[in-house]
Amino acid sequence: MLSSAIIVFRETLEATLIIGIIAVATRSLQSRNAWLVVGIGAGAVGSLIVASLTGQIAQLAEGAGQELFNACVLGIAAVMLAWHNIWMARHGVQLARDAKQLGQDVASGNREMSALAVVVALAILREGSETALFLYGLLTGGGETLATVLAGGAIGLFAGAMAGYGLYAGFLRIPVRLFFAATSGLITLLAAAMTSQAARFLVQADLLPSLVDPLWNTSWLLTDTSLLGRFLHTLVGYEATPSGIQVAFYTVTLILIIAGVRIFRPQPPASATN
Length: 274
Description:
Elements: H1 2-25, H2 32-52, H3 54-63, H4 65-97, H5 105-141, H6 146-172, H7 176-204, H8 227-236, H9 244-264, H10 270-273
């Protein structure tokens, strides 16, 4: 029971962390809750389908199918998050000025949430399929019964959801004047973390060189398997032993998103700058 509870708690916390950041960043948009529910539901169904097809997926591309699948999921999610930040750079001022009367931005907001629903679905898809596979491994290993796996999973799911909600509530306490800057920064780091993880899977599939592996080793300070390490891994892409290509992907993603936000941010009228 303890093993299944820990596994489900860890995977649930990672998924709810991503969902919480997106939920906070879009709290002013209409239909947000509906799109989040759609994303969660689609991700849950998809994760079960992927888990049932893992054997076939793994055999694709000469045995590198699972790595390619994970890299594609992370890459798509990172692109969606980058697009979100650029969109918010153009519309965030209006959203902050009047959250209840968005005018023409409402339609754009709905399109924005449809994209972020994809990110939510992909997060649930990845973590949910991993959870299903881990729990199946416990059952086939003979160390757990179906009853203990289900009970432990329920405990882990509840604990992970509560921890994720606590993080979400903490994000909501950010002052409005700092709100968009804070959430933009979080989403930028999250997107960079996803591209770094995608690079790791592509290295495992022998499609990218690792360059220097590892580039550094901070396992003595914080391991990847600790609770704090897993939290920072999801939030900012922390890895104790990253390869050079991972750091390169992370850095380039940060530069591209920051540059995109600066380029597409509306400029103040000339009279306001004089």
